[in-house]
Amino acid sequence: MRLIGDILRRYPWQSVAMLVALLAAGAAEGLSLGSLLPMLSIASGAGADAPLPAREAMGFMGDWLRRADWQPTLGLLLVLIVAGITVKGVLMLVAQAMVGNTAARFAAELRLAMLRALLASRLDHFLHQPLGRLGTALTSEVQSTSGAFVNAMNALAFLIQALIYAAVALAISWQATLTGLAAGVLVIGTTSALVRIARHAGRTHNARLRGLASRLTDVLLSVRPMKAMAQESLADALLVAENRRLQRAQRRQVLSAAALTAAQEELFALVIALGMYLAIARLGMPFTTVLVLVLTLGRMLAQLGKVQKEYQKVAIAEGAYLALAATIDEARAAAEPPRGTREPALREGIRLEGVHFAWGERVVFAGVDLDIRAGSFTTLMGPSGCGKSTLLDLVLGFQQPAAGHVTIDGVTLETLDVRRWRSMIGYVPQETLLLHDTVLYNVTLGDPALGAADVERALRQAGVWDVVRSLPGGLEHVVGERGGKLSGGQRQRIMIARALVRRPRLLVLDEATSSLDQDSEDAICDTLAALRGELTILAISHRPAFAAISDRVVQVDRLARGEPGAVSDAGGNGYGNSGSTPA
Q1: For residue 46, what pLDDT is reported?
Q2: Residues 248, 250: Cα–Cα separation, whole Å
Q3: DSSP type of residue 563
Q4: Which of 86, 140, 387, 438 has its CA 20 to 30 A from that of 103?
């Protein structure tokens, strides 16, 4: 299976060490079992002074002891049995510890691999991923995959033990051993259909779980408007339907596992009972020999049954791993293409030169030119869908023009180190995406290079330092879920502080005040006006207040059509018919 193959390729030395420990544990158990037949043969004598049993009654273990010039006494054999069990227990503990550590490491690396692949993918790919699906992949699917590895290693351990039991039984009676192995293979083959049912149920269960998580995330993000319109019942009905589908898949999964256990126990009991009858009544084998064979072959069959049960658990979790691997593979296939290595600076400005861009068949820009001077405040305006966000995406490097160039200080963006370019950008989205954490963490996002002094400076620039200082705990004040303990204007100012804390050269605001009242918007506009000249500001807004504080206003719809006056100063004076501004 791909899961086991991937783990063995990732951790070859750990896998070899686990295998050696399991083999050694099996050999120790074989030592204990091998000592059982001579011990029973001695114990069945007339007393302590009775002569030792015949060589054939002592089995291979008694023969080995005699060759080593050790007298196979009852005391020695008991010591060997206890020693074998002890050594087996220690080695199994070591093996299980290695399995657990490897499984935990594999799970952690899977999470990191998925996160890195998603974060390195193109923005449009990431935006098409349902949050609930990603959350399920990072939690339950990774956990299921980690558990499947443990199950696979358990199956290997049980298989090794079964082979050890078979080797001990083979030394006693090869006919009985081969018969027992054939019976075990027959039972496992008979019940293999239950494993296939479990595998299908596991894949269905994982798919249903992903669907439920996606639905649940959407519902939780929409609780406020749904409650405001008394539409909670719709969400309840939707989740009930998803839960029912998930419950059906889980029921098939549980029933197949229970049916496998019941079928194995019944069939193995029949095999052992029939074997005892034939060995005693038909073949006339000594009772002690039959007893040891029943114990050994019974344990062998039981271990083979456990191998199948553990394999069934791996099969159930297979769907989770395949779905997780597909998510990672898709993200890697959608990775951002490699860019240049030149260092950006933004000393002169940003320029769009003859830019063509289309979403499918819909042309957004056809030969657009635009200058954004360094240190200026430029606002992009226009109706929804005219290309404002697309223009931002071109500047940020999220999209590339089909023709033409985006240049920074005269250097094309394709030849620049795009990650270094983005590190020079402070971005304020329309949504106030505050975390349920402290003000300090919300501004720094956990960056260890930033301290309290950096946060205070950014909060002062954003005009919210006095508010934060008055909060209980100051910088350590917890803002609540999505910043619910703060007003809308305060939340947005903290978002601006987050964008400013790394001293960006370009500040981008994407409808940053669209959900604020007039007073809050005016206060933020005063803050942004004070920043004008310190850094380049590029904003999307429909609000007149932004136009009033901007150096230039770009009517993006008119720019896209090549109309004159598309770019104007705040007073409305056009810059010419080309739709571009002088440098």
Answers
A1: 38
A2: 5
A3: -
A4: 86
> How much is the pLDDT for 573?
37
- Closest residue by Cα to residue 211 from 256, 252, 248, 255: 248
Q: 32 with 89: CB under 8 angstroms?
A: no
Structural domain count, the chain: 2
How do strand 377-381 and strand 403-408 relate by DSSP bridges?
unpaired
Residues 410, 504 within the same domain? yes
| Rounded Cα–Cα distance for residues 180 and 541 (Å) | 79
Pair 421, 498 in one domain: yes
Give me the pLDDT at residue 37, please: 53
What whole-number distance in Å separates Cα of residue 503 and Cα of residue 447?
14
**279 & 372 share domain:** no
The string of pLDDT tens digits covering residues 331-377 is 888 888 877 888 888 888 899 999 999 888 888 888 888 998 988 88
Greatest pairwise CA separation for the chain in angstroms: 121
CA distance 346 to 424: 9
* Cα–Cα distance for residue pair 307/314, rounded to 1 Å: 11
Q: Are residues 311 and 446 in the same domain?
A: no
Question: Are 34 and 61 in contact, with CB atoms under 8 Å apart?
Answer: yes
* 12-34 and 2-10 helices, crossing angle to 10°: 100
Distance CA 278, CA 291 (A): 13
The answer to whether 305 touches 268, Cβ cutoff 8 Å, is yes
Domain assignment of residue 415, given as a range: 349-569
Q: Is 220 exposed, middle or buried (0-12, 13-18, 19+ CB in 10 A)?
A: exposed
The domain boundary residue, chosen from 269, 303, 333: 333
Residues 442 and 370 in one domain: yes
Q: The CATH number of the domain where 182 resides is what?
A: 1.20.1560.10
For the stretch 160-210, pLDDT in tens is 888 877 877 777 777 777 887 888 888 888 888 888 887 777 778 777 777
Token pair of 163, please?
């082979």
Q: Indicate whether 237 pLDDT > 70.
A: no
- With tokens 């005269």, the residue in question is 410
Same domain, 320 and 375: no
Shared domain for 329 and 353, answered yes or no, is no
Both 282 and 368 in one domain: the answer is no
